[in-house]
Write a sequence for this structure.
């Protein structure tokens, strides 16, 4: 994870310093970097868990199918949040440092994750 984070940091710094017209602005580069780091972390955790479960349990395909079905049904909102997060990021709807109003909350975007956006309003309260 640390090596992947270093590579992502170098990518972000290169994008910020780049003067090419097709490179990202600094806010978007920072946001993409944070999302890539988060994605890398979750991918490593998921892969590690799958390896551990696969090597310690010998279960039938029917049980695995049932568990997979239950997880898929339960993860629908998670998948929707992730897809919406990617649309927000890649359509440049808003970025870190922008002033936005989301629902009834208004403030400065502090962080954009795959599933959530963190706002800090003008009274100092944080909204996720």
């Amino acid at each position: 994870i640390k090596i992947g984070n270093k590579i992502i940091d170098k990518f972000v710094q290169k994008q910020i310093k780049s003067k090419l017209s097709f490179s990202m602005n600094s806010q978007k580069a920072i946001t993409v970097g944070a999302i890539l780091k988060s994605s890398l972390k979750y991918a490593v955790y998921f892969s590690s868990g799958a390896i551990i479960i696969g090597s310690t349990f010998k279960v039938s395909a029917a049980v695995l199918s049932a568990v997979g079905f239950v997880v898929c049904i339960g993860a629908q909102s998670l998948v929707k949040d992730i897809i919406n997060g990617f649309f927000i990021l890649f359509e440049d709807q808003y970025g870190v440092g922008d002033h936005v109003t989301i629902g009834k909350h208004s403030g400065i975007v502090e962080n954009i994750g795959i599933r959530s956006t963190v706002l800090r309003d003008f009274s100092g309260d944080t909204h996720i």
Q: What stands out?
A: The mean pLDDT is 74. The helical segments are 2-17, 26-56, 61-74, 76-90. The chain has two domains: 1-57, 59-128. The radius of gyration is 19 Å.
